[in-house]
Amino acid sequence: MKTLKLLIIFLLAILQVSSQSTDALLNKAGKSYNRGNYEKSLELMEEAIKQMAMNDPAYPYVMKRIGDCSYQLEDYENAADHYDYAIKKGWSTGQYYDLIELYFLLGSSYSNSENYKDAIHTFEFIVNSYQMDTRSEGWFLQVLSVYVLTRINTATI
Predict the structure, then answer these.
(1) What global pTM score does this model have?
(2) Dist CA 90 CA 102 (whole Å)
């Protein structure tokens, strides 16, 4: 019985250390990103994501941040994969604007990687899924989506 208690305490201690190191990695990654060191930030985010459980509430957020790093490094296909994953796993800050922005980043990633079919689909989704309301913070992304759709359609015709 005493051995079982020690084992449980040991496992809990390991979990605590792992959690702290994940938080430390994410903190360092955020600082690197803010300084414009996207490669280092990406490296730290990828290390942190390996330590996280997929059902961790922060997991979609970290996937979005990996997408942000990839986008800044012009690895648009990787960015799109991570943005798409974040959307599918329910990434949300609860802010209307943030979700529109995430879809916009996904569409931009598709467009920049010349995946025009998915870019058009994503920008159309933004335009058609959200009521245009100039009082909201996301309205300009909707207008910009219409513009981008026009440019893509013109370029691919």
Answers:
(1) 0.74
(2) 11
Nearest Cα neighbor of 65 from 23, 26, 36 is 26
Query: φ and ψ at 89, to 5 degrees?
Result: -90, 10
Q: What is the mean pLDDT of each run of 10 residues along the chain (157 residues)?
A: 54 47 90 95 93 84 94 97 89 66 91 90 80 59 70 66
Q: Which two tokens stand for residue 54?
A: 């997929």
Residue 144 C-alpha from the chain's centroid:
20
Q: What is the b/e burial string over 88-121, where b = at least 16 CB atoms within 10 angstroms of the residue's CB?
A: eeebeeeeeeebbbbbbbbbbbbbbbebeebbbe
What CA–CA distance (Å, rounded) separates 27 from 24? 5
Are the CB atoms for 99 and 88 separated by under 8 Å? Answer: no
Phi, psi torsion values for 148, nearest 5 degrees: -60, -40
Calculate the CA 13 to chain-centre distance: 30
Residue 8 — φ and ψ, nearest 5°? Answer: -65, -45
- Tokens describing residue 63: 């996937």
